[in-house]
TrEMBL record, chains A, B, C, D, E, F:
Its EC number is 5.1.99.5. Belongs to the HyuE racemase family. One of its GO terms (molecular function) is hydantoin racemase activity. This is Hydantoin racemase. It catalyses: a D-5-monosubstituted hydantoin = a L-5-monosubstituted hydantoin; D-5-benzylhydantoin = L-5-benzylhydantoin. It is an enzyme of class 5 (isomerase).
Amino acid sequence: MKIKVINPNTTWEMTKGIEHAAKSAARQGTEILAVSPEMGPVSIESYYDEYLAIPGVLEEIRKGDREGVDAYVIACYGDPGLHAARELTHAPVIGIAEASMYMASMLAARFSIVTVLPRIKTMLEELVAGYGMGHRVISIRTTPLSVLDFEKDPAKGMEVLAQEGRRAVEEDHAEAILLGCAGMAEFADRLEQELQVPVFDGVVAAVKFAEAVVDLGKTTSKLKTYKYPEKKKFIGAMSPFADINS
Amino acid sequence: MKIKVINPNTTWEMTKGIEHAAKSAARQGTEILAVSPEMGPVSIESYYDEYLAIPGVLEEIRKGDREGVDAYVIACYGDPGLHAARELTHAPVIGIAEASMYMASMLAARFSIVTVLPRIKTMLEELVAGYGMGHRVISIRTTPLSVLDFEKDPAKGMEVLAQEGRRAVEEDHAEAILLGCAGMAEFADRLEQELQVPVFDGVVAAVKFAEAVVDLGKTTSKLKTYKYPEKKKFIGAMSPFADINS
Amino acid sequence: MKIKVINPNTTWEMTKGIEHAAKSAARQGTEILAVSPEMGPVSIESYYDEYLAIPGVLEEIRKGDREGVDAYVIACYGDPGLHAARELTHAPVIGIAEASMYMASMLAARFSIVTVLPRIKTMLEELVAGYGMGHRVISIRTTPLSVLDFEKDPAKGMEVLAQEGRRAVEEDHAEAILLGCAGMAEFADRLEQELQVPVFDGVVAAVKFAEAVVDLGKTTSKLKTYKYPEKKKFIGAMSPFADINS
Amino acid sequence: MKIKVINPNTTWEMTKGIEHAAKSAARQGTEILAVSPEMGPVSIESYYDEYLAIPGVLEEIRKGDREGVDAYVIACYGDPGLHAARELTHAPVIGIAEASMYMASMLAARFSIVTVLPRIKTMLEELVAGYGMGHRVISIRTTPLSVLDFEKDPAKGMEVLAQEGRRAVEEDHAEAILLGCAGMAEFADRLEQELQVPVFDGVVAAVKFAEAVVDLGKTTSKLKTYKYPEKKKFIGAMSPFADINS
Amino acid sequence: MKIKVINPNTTWEMTKGIEHAAKSAARQGTEILAVSPEMGPVSIESYYDEYLAIPGVLEEIRKGDREGVDAYVIACYGDPGLHAARELTHAPVIGIAEASMYMASMLAARFSIVTVLPRIKTMLEELVAGYGMGHRVISIRTTPLSVLDFEKDPAKGMEVLAQEGRRAVEEDHAEAILLGCAGMAEFADRLEQELQVPVFDGVVAAVKFAEAVVDLGKTTSKLKTYKYPEKKKFIGAMSPFADINS
Amino acid sequence: MKIKVINPNTTWEMTKGIEHAAKSAARQGTEILAVSPEMGPVSIESYYDEYLAIPGVLEEIRKGDREGVDAYVIACYGDPGLHAARELTHAPVIGIAEASMYMASMLAARFSIVTVLPRIKTMLEELVAGYGMGHRVISIRTTPLSVLDFEKDPAKGMEVLAQEGRRAVEEDHAEAILLGCAGMAEFADRLEQELQVPVFDGVVAAVKFAEAVVDLGKTTSKLKTYKYPEKKKFIGAMSPFADINS
């Protein structure tokens, strides 16, 4: 099967890391197609960045359907554009935040999310509430590092993650840690060893869930909420988006 | 004061109607600047449409700050891009959905939203929950008409709204009706007469709230969640968005 | 238009302060009628005080309807008697707590309420939950000062408010502060300067919302919950309340 | 022990009925003191009525403490003034609504409240939510009869209660019925026979809970929320309320 | 009347203590029958222990119905098997956790539970949420002691309870303390004296509620959720459970 | 890898059906070990049945750890004993109810559960709430058929499921159907064809999630809630359960 992993930001080095994580998790016979959109921000750390990354994500979904993609993973911990992506294709679309939370819920009673800059916290609170996971997520801990800081100085990134992860375990009594950024996949194993609790990276969780769903032949319900969008005119820079498969 | 009312879709006839409603509500001395973005869909009836309307909305915010705008109204009943808009400017930004719900809450104990196509229902449920208004909104009723159907055949639109509004009052025991689409402003008065309960159009509610907030000199908190977005590179069709005022 | 601002306690010095705040916020052409009831406690710091203040508030509503009042503001941060007041008149009635929370919600993602004595905390928690604002109010901070302490020693009041406000910002990560007592209006501006986050006084917020609602010609829904009370006999000290306008 | 059952309205015939129910439930050695306040409305069917009944209720609490009362029951299904009453005395104060819900929760998984006029519904929804009982109360059903209609025409009252009770069982799948008015106590037994599900009258439930609490020597926590009210001046018709025991 | 108090664990010394507490609370004429099951764990400190205690509890219910029992109390602070017990008999069945929370709710606005080992915390959080008491329970505090540690070294138990109880009052602002283990009944009075807030033991609360319910002749609703279990075959060690009274 | 699928009831014909479903879903290399416990009820349709099935389930977990099992699936739609099972082993344990809800959440916005007898409804409501899925599950529909009725007369079972499934889609606007009983797996495909919406059987969903989790090497967090149970004495029929691996 072919799983397209879309890194919604346009930093290709980060996409490489995500691809590496996804491939290490995929089973034999699963083809991983990791991409960044051709438009959008180099990192996502605000509602502004998130919304401006979504058109690029949707373009990759549309292209994917022509590439014979069986399932999609949206690899940014805000699950940007998830619901729109589900409208646009019948293939399953899985966000790494939802995947990490559902998987963690099957292995730990209470857990924490450790993520990038403080301003992200409200976004994640709304996301967690929207998934009905407010009673499982015992804390959301931010760091002073931006998304690209983690790319540029992984040693520093690891240090900061370990520090906040430890606080989550010791002060908040988290029983597992969820990595709140797709670029943190590389730290998962070391962090798990250091903290001695399960550490969940959403990229690998989403890839495995995508395999599971495709194996079962399940596709997105097109009955009402996720029906194909109505065909209509788009103008300006958005004109190409009038072209919907359905 | 100058209030910029942004119709997130690109149907200028509809923007005219919104402008008319906004101006009729504005007090003397309030300048209404009603616009449609230069990019995006002609109507918004899905997550797909909504996300693809947001870049255009944000562009209008950015332009607005250079035009001396005092407050913004986002005139689509999904409040598209609201949080990102608040990041982008220090001026107040008000969505018509939130405005209608807050205003209705001060005048009615329980109310219903009457809106366009059935597929919109889940979007509105999430929106209502996000504003903490789940206990006030007693039902969300949809119609078989699209956004542009209401534009094209207002007589039919009025008929359908009256029908669903009446059901909301009689079957769901709604004590007020909220119009779930910016293009419905024109029906508010007649509907109120026909149903004999308060009918709230979000456009006029938002304009009045904007005046209120500007009068008090209140602006968006730039402390954390709504800080200006970090400056960064954007590529492709999104390149222009790298240019943030702050 | 004529807005009657009712200070539910009977401390006229405090009513003067509230009147001053209301007038400073009102636009030209808005007449502010600030009153204290002729019966009730000199301050409100318990359920006991609150309930015993309500008959006086309702009397002022009843009188107001004969005075040609267009809208009412209940100027105590428990919104005492709000729902009963809405039953008693068709004119809009706005509580300062709800007004401050709705306005703050349009300008800040998370905020704190700073208020008087510790015993008030449970009352405010219930109030916040009732308005569906539990996810926005990040903390409720009390002070050792009573309502009248703030009147008697404003310097001390300012000091204590600044202290708790700072803690709300620094420890709880509040992005705005709401003043949890009508008598605190005078501190709003200085506090805003000192804390560098928006500070919301409910009195001015409610006055502006009242203007907005009256401008739009909106009145309370009299369909069911807020119908005029059934006419009936009242005995003893409550006999005068049998006289309902409707 | 001495239990004072306060009927918050001033209809003495109804108080007699409540007294009868309370005495039939009280065990030997429990003295029931059933009273109506000396001020207030003859029935309670709105927020207006409720708030104007509370001063009378509080006066009865104050008097009760001088009469050697061991526990109080507030016998109106809105639990009017409950929290203020708890501030005013160290003796336990129990509302009939809370008592009926807690007792029903120990005997039935899901239940309905059947009550008087439609306008009461929102009041009861807020009450139920405040007690955390929203998941247990499967429906609130109103009748076209007022409180005094039930007094005047008990045959009609019984008929209407049976009708709505049956609908609650058959349509809403209620497994027990709660009588949403203190004046309905007399119908409980017949209704239980007719509907073949447990029917709970709050008056008797509250009396039994009061006995239970007094037996254990438990009293209201005076630590914070329910501390005695601060001593202060009251003016006008409320002057007598300055006199607090504590 | 005959109340059977079932200590779900098989430590008879603890059952003696529970019997003592129950008898001290029961009024004259109430016969207390305190038992431990003939199968199950010596203490309950995990989901594992809890589930393995339930068959023994249910056997005691079944036997009780043949012994003429009027009401049952399940005396372990997880209310193990409560819903199944209600299916198995028409007599009321009351859990000590629910009883303590409902009673405390009538006497204190906010309270804390102090209990045994840290691992219990999630179990209690789910229990509290299930009863709709999440807004009343301000904290759940655990101790390093196991159930049997409290039996073996009561002096140490008292010390630890006092310490955590004090923290609950001072740091969490609890206005009452609930003892989160049936074996803690003996500490209630001393703790109440030491902390100067009401301390609730669930055993005595449940016994009094059982008396109240039996006095009123109320029994479990057998309409739907708590119908007698369908008769069916059980195999292996569970074979005896095929024998249901109904 | 070896996945042990435990049918908590003791009807071996049903276990065969579950085994068939599990094997059809498992990928090459996954060994499915489908078992029924050696003790317990032949079907689960009440809290009573559920609790009496759990010891048998736990015995199978304990045995499984000695059999080299990599992950467990509990194949009854109440997820009986799930949390205890997680305490007992470090291997992942997945319930079919949680699996079906998490998977459905990734493919449909709103869905319904169709299940057996009406008495099950409250149990499922609590289950759904416990997983935070209350906003996704739009209705729970029951049928007049028992678990074994579906085994005995599959044609009738299919008819009834199709009928309630259709109502869920047409009346409740469900966008997917979840089969609320492990024995319904065989109907999934035909039902999906007939209703034209995704139909989720929890058995296959759980097997795929188990594969996913094992592939990633993730195991249950043993930090706090799911620590191994404390070693202790068990008496009577429960004596064998003292023997815990850890």
